[in-house]
Structures are given as structure tokens and as C-alpha cells.
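Running co-folding for adenosine-5'-diphosphate.
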Amino acid sequence: MKSPSAFRALRIDWFKLGGREQNIKDYIALANQLIWKRQGSFFAAAVLAAIYFDALIIFAFYAVVVVTEVLDVLLGHQSKTWDGKDPVRGRRIFIRIAINTILSALAISAFIISIAHQETSTGHFTSLFFLFSASVFASMYNSQMLIILVLRLSIYGCAFLYIALLDVVRYLPPLSSLIWLQFWTIVFVLYFIADISLKFYLNYQRQQKHMSLIEEENEVTKAALEVKSRFLAIVSHELRTPLTSIVGSLELLKSEKFGALPDNLKPVLNIAARNSERLTSLVEDLLDLQKLEAGEMQLYFKTIDANTLAQEAVEAVSGYASKVGVEVTTSLCDEGCHISGDRSRLIQVMNNLLSNALKFSEDGGAVHVQVERLEDKVRISVKDKGIGIPQGSEDAVFGKFSQVDASDIRKVGGTGLGLNISKQIIERHGARIDYISKLGVGSVFFIEFDRVTGEDGSDAAPQTA
Ligand code: ADP
């Protein structure tokens, strides 16, 4: 004798047979999406049939179909809150779907059989075509759950055979009669419906497999990105401390506080200092990038005078400007150019725009910084007469580690991170950064903010930190 556990093992898990949680969710979502399409078809079929057959009977059956549709809608609402995780609720939803399917398929079949009974001529053209449409509809849209599809199609199949046998039983014709030809045609159509249902089902399965493959790959990519990001953060942090002391020590040596330096050592020391500064700025950029990507960059918003911001930024690069022999001029806004932002982060952005403008200018070139008020906006632009940027280079300009001219013969250095970081900082301000440029003529990079005004529309006073 079999033990009770062996019986339990033999019991069919209908829920599993129905498909995964995702299949149930897909099934309900699609059923809800198609509700009006279904209602339209049922109503059109009922009106058409009511014109030619007994309207009372037709609408009585149609009412039963509508009741099963209402049950479907209720099921859709109930399962909306199902997160796909609670298997007990999932099983209950699955059983409700199965019951609804049986009721709905029975109601539709009864509705169509009632038409077949009223069709006096042989052939049952209308009823069979209605049934055919209902079957194709089920094949196309019920492939998420094989068991449900099979349930519905089996009921339709019985209705098909019932209608096919109706005339055979009614007239008991010889095998050579056209009634038998119609019977065999119906059997052929049933095979055709089973075949296309299988095709739709296999297609859905294939699509599901692709989706889960994409999901898996997505997870792997996310994990790899996370590791990369953490690695970058650790390396940058670990590099920053020794670098700060290297830069400090080199500065001390250069200041000759520990005694005069031999002339032949000075250029070597300068190269070392320059390179450690470059390394420091790369590490700073990497840390900023990591902070922005992790959403950990804190911004401290204050009302800032855009004129002061521009002047401070120009002052900060004045040493570099005279070193590369480029004159920086400024034209300020008359009044009411206050913006809301994080002062030190905006200085960082301005520094990046200005140092790029200087870096890509020829010796003897000119850079112009302009602060202007454009209705409810404030724009700060940095204009140079440098090498310019070819059209369609936006991705290279604002991308990560990307440069327009990344060739080995490129004269100026850089990491290709500055503008990407600037763009992210500016976007976190709800502002805009963009550029206009012509190759060989020069570029204008600008940042544009909402103008900050007082409550009565007057100019807001800048807040001090
Ligand atoms: P980088 O460290 O290379 O300067 P950025 O992100 O600041 O990185 O700039 C990205 C690229 O955009 C630069 O490498 C350069 O090709 C282009 N670019 C930026 N500003 C200018 C400019 N004013 N003139 C010409 N090209 C520019």
C-alpha cells in the first residue's frame, strides 16, 4: 500500500502546472488590457445575432457572458495587490482564474450553441465563425498559462463538435452527404486551432526565457558595476592621503625652507610637483564621480550672486591664465542675477569651464566670461577663441573618460571627466549646461539657472554661509 506522503507526492500541483508567478501576473495584466476589446466583440456578436435570431434568448445568454466578465474584472482588482511572492495567495488566484475560465468558456459556448440551434439552414456558418474567433482570440492571448489555455480550448472544442454533430444527428445523412464534409472540415479546423495555440504558447515561452536571460545578465552587470565602483572608491581614498603628503613635501622643498636647491634639481622637482597635482586632480575627480553615482554628493544650497561667483572663479584661474598667456575678461550682469546653488560645487564647475577654455586656447588668445539675465533665467557663459569642437561631439564632450580628440598627438592633458562631473552637478541644481562651438573658431560653454527673486518678485539678497 502506498503511504500518505507518496500520495501527496503523486498529487498534481496545478499551480505549478499553470506556470510561474510571472505568467499569472502577465495573464491577468493582458486580460485587463483587453477587457474593452472583448466587450466590444461580445456586444457586436450579440447585436448581430439578435437582429436575425430570437433577441430575448440571445441577450439572456449574452447577460451570462457579461457576468463572467465582471468576475474577471473583480479578479483583476483582487490580484493587483499580489506581489507575486505569497504562494498561498498565488494558488488561490490561480484557482479563481481556472474557475472563471470554465464559467466564461461555458457561457460563450452556450451563447454560440443557442445561435446554432436557431440556425435552420445547414452549415452553421455564423455560430461556427463566432466559435472560431473566440478560439483564435484565446490562442493569441491566453498563452501565458498552458493549463488555462487547454481548459478554455477543450470547452470550445466540445462546443465545436456539438455543433458539428447537430446536423448529423438532426438529418442522419449518408457519409457521402455534404453534412459529413462539414463535420470533417470542423475536425480539420480544430486541429488548426490546436496547432496555432501551440505556436503562440511556444513563442511566449521563448520570450519568457529571453526575458529571464536579460534579467540575469542585468543582475550580473549591476553586481560588476557595484564592485568596480567600490574598488574605485577604495583606491581613490587610499591614494589621496599619500598624495596630499607628497604634494605638500614637494611644495616645502620648492620653497627652499630647508635650504637652497641645486639648479639642476629644480626642473626635476617642478615636473614631480606638476605630475602630483595632475594625479591629485584625477583622484578628486574619481571620488566626485563615485559620490555622484552613489547619490552621496551633498549639496548645500544658498542664494548666490552670479556676478560674485563668476569673479571668484576668474580670480582662481588667473595664475594659470597668465602662465598660458591668455587674457580673461569679464562682463557682469547689471542687477538681479541671483541663483540658488552650492557655492563650492559651482566654483568647481566654473573652474572646469575656465580651465578648459584656457587649455584649448592658443597663446595670446582671449577668454570672456559673461553673466547675463534672460527673463527668468541667469546665464553664465565662458567664451574662448580656441580650437573649437566638431559638430555632433556632445557625447564625447559630456561623456565619462571621453575626449573629442583622444589621439596620442593631442597637445593638452586631461581625464575626460571634468565636464561629465560638471553636467551631473548642474543637473542636480535643476539647471542646464550646454555649449555652442565652431571648429577652428572657438566655443561658448554656458550654465543656465532659474533666477531667484524675493517673495514680492524683487531681487533676493544673497545669503551668507
Ligand atoms: P578634459 O579633462 O579632457 O578636459 P572635460 O570633460 O573637461 O575633460 O572635457 C571633455 C572634452 O571636451 C575635452 O577633452 C575636449 O575634447 C572637449 N572640450 C571641452 N571644453 C572645450 C573647449 N573649450 N574647447 C575645445 N574643446 C573642449
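Result summary
The radius of gyration is 38 Å.
The longest strand covers residues 366-374.
Job closed.
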